[in-house]
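Per reviewer request, we include the raw input and output of the structure prediction for the construct analysed in the revised manuscript.
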Amino acid sequence: MVNHERNKKILLDLLKQPENSRCADCGAADPDWASYKLGVFLCLKCSGVHRSFSCQIKSIELDFWDDKQVEFMKSNGNASAKAIYEKAVPPFYYQPCQSDCNVLVEQWIRAKYERGEFTGDTKYPPLPYTTGFFEGMLWKKGKENTQFLKRKFVLSEREFTLTYYNKDDESKGPKAVIFIKDLNATFQTEKIGHPHGLQLTYQTENSTRNLFVYHENPEEIVTWFNVIRAARYAYLKTAYPTGSDKELVPKITRNYLKEGYMEKTGPNQKEQFKKRWFVLDSQTRKLFYFKDQLDAEELGVIFIGTESNNYSVSPFAPKSTRGNKWKHGIMVETPERQFVFMCEQEREQREWIDALRKIHSRPMSPQDYAAEAKIRYK
């Protein structure tokens, strides 16, 4: 019992070291689990992944630690493991945080410790995200229906394109050629209804197009995600040759600032309210709205400018409540018109206003002004 208490104190003291005070894999604060095989401190979520391929996981406070295990933790720790297992992580490779979906966290952990992808050793065959070319089959949702069908996708970093084919016969040509310049990828597991669901979004001539895809194999879908990120990184390095990784990496792919249903009325604020799915993209300063969350194309888009350019975001009680079931209103005012939305709950209203104001308070760049000039309200 004396040894147990002494060893627990040693472990708790190790946790106070800055490098051990966060989970070795996702960065979550105050890890309370550890791998005595790898010598790393982990959060509950990441410890579960480690347990799936190694039973050498213990709770720091609840489990018994013998002297040998504690000495191993003292001799290693998160910083030592990072120097080995993250020695050569490419700048474009996505390193997940605590809030990311399970498949990203799991595959990051397996890539580090199981497959040893970032040790700096030469890999043969080379890792797909290092080759500049990748092809394979993905399940893709139909544009006009909810059916998912297998489609072939081909990514070429040399051409900066992602191409997909509707049929196995490629001689009939591609269904779409997507330019990496305009492509975003983000995991949407809940929205798509699959633990490996990935949303691909790109700009067409007249609208924004969403593709919803998945692969049954978790390693394969995360490989696709990082292959796309590798191509995006290469494009950004070409487009902005003086840009640093600190500037460019956040632009590779992005999660949307907020998504969800709100009710929307028309330009006269007397039209019937209709339920719409909204997506707020911080990078482009655009609020998109769709009939439903898995729609391929938006019904409309609203640019979120700054107060000095005659934009505003505020709580609002509408004059008319025709057709609306929700009571918590928001007004977004642009130089051209006013938009009124209704939220189901006051909490959602606050969250939307906070998210919109986060963009509204950010100064506009020259690229923002160019994007604003192209907006046509429906």
